[in-house]
Amino acid sequence: MKQSQLFTKTKKESPSDEVALNAELLIKAGFINKEMAGVYSYLPLGLRVMKKIENIIREEMNAIGGIEMKTSIIQSKEVWERSGRWSDDVVDNWFKTKLKSGTEVGLSFTNEEAYSNILKQYISSYKDLPIYPYDFKDIFRNETRSKSGILRGREFYWKALYSFSKNEEEHNIFYEKAKQSYKNIFSRVGIGHLTYMTFASGGTFSKFSHEFQTITSAGEDTIYVEENKGIAVNKEVYTDEVLESLGLKKEDMVENKAIEVGNIFSLGTKFSTPFDLKYKDEKGEDNLVIMGCYGVGLGRLMGTVVEVLSDDKGIIWPESISPFKVHLLSLGSDENVKKNAEDLYNKLNERRIEVLFDDRSDVSAGEKFADSDLIGIPYRIVVSKRSLADGGFEVKKRTEVQGKIINEQELIDLLETKN
RNA sequence: CGGGGUGUAGUGUAACGGCUAACAUUCCUGUUUUGGGAACAGGCGACUCCGGGUUCGAAUCCCGGCGCCCCGACCA
Fold this sequence. Notes:
5-stranded mixed β-barrel, 5-stranded mixed beta sheet, about 30% helix, RNA-binding
């Protein structure tokens, strides 16, 4: 994409109505637009990041048997009354509205009911199980106080997968796969080294749920990390008894602030009971389906990456989720420079290397560099009189201070290398 | 929902109760520039969040509302 076609612009000043680093950088660099507290639009650059994250999660879900679908956002009251979660006394952050007819409806804030209700039509035999449907969708929660930029919004994009299993053993096998799948996701988006599987309160059907917590001072949660084992315990269940049951010693645990980027938990029959979600086993007897829930907030994940990976000049995207792989800058108004830059841009496009081409002719070199650092694309390539005189193109990683000059073939080899 | 803070061009800020609400940036015109947010000249852009009140006079003081930020509570 040519930057002259990109309508967003970077801002020099930080927004006055944001304190959170993620929102500050994403707004300055033109990835998101704030509509109101807790509600953000995703601009072209932001959407590209979101899509990258979505695809990584999709690949990981598909790899463990996930089947993608899409549940509706408008939800009927009757379905939610079945599980007892329609009442505002039970769930106080519903967004509800009415049809013209006066019928009350809700904007989905989670998906258990929707899935249970749909799958009741399709699950009848042990031969139908297990299944692992999931979807990406916008979720609405009328938070009394949204905060921290895109880390906690009133409207957000998430992935939720639900597992439907015949029994506990079958459920547990998948649950373990899901754990690994989640580790893969956070590792692939570049925050694996800071993200810990964390034991948290489990509810009625299991002792623990598992959160994936990324360590950062911007976090809302407090966790205790056991570095050697690579696991953590949420403060809410941090007791001597729990530590003992997990084989952890208090002196090995380090307190940290962290952001919950994902969580998985066993639902048992909590929803299959009210929805009468049963299957016939080999003997023809009815059994309740055992469910599990596996969620990731994509916006929050994107915000967390920004919180964790940035410097005083801007964002530092991991290559896996960067809006583009390469930021190509053409400096100066020299016709030969322009032609070389344009040629390189076309060649990279032909090779399907994602490139943002700063072809703006009325922008100074310094401004292009500043914009490039702020936007945070992993590779920066400069074409200028100087680089051409030195024999090619200057390539510099966002994380490096000094670039180096290489020729076109070396450049293409470098960018086509898988890492 | 309790507590604290705050609201002025697109953005960031300034203005003692008193001239035509200022400066920077963005944007537009032109000239000159082009390796770290270039220089000069000119120009556009504001019912000072909304509604009341005090006053000869309100961006400024008072009351109410709304928005936004932070702390806390809450977070299926």
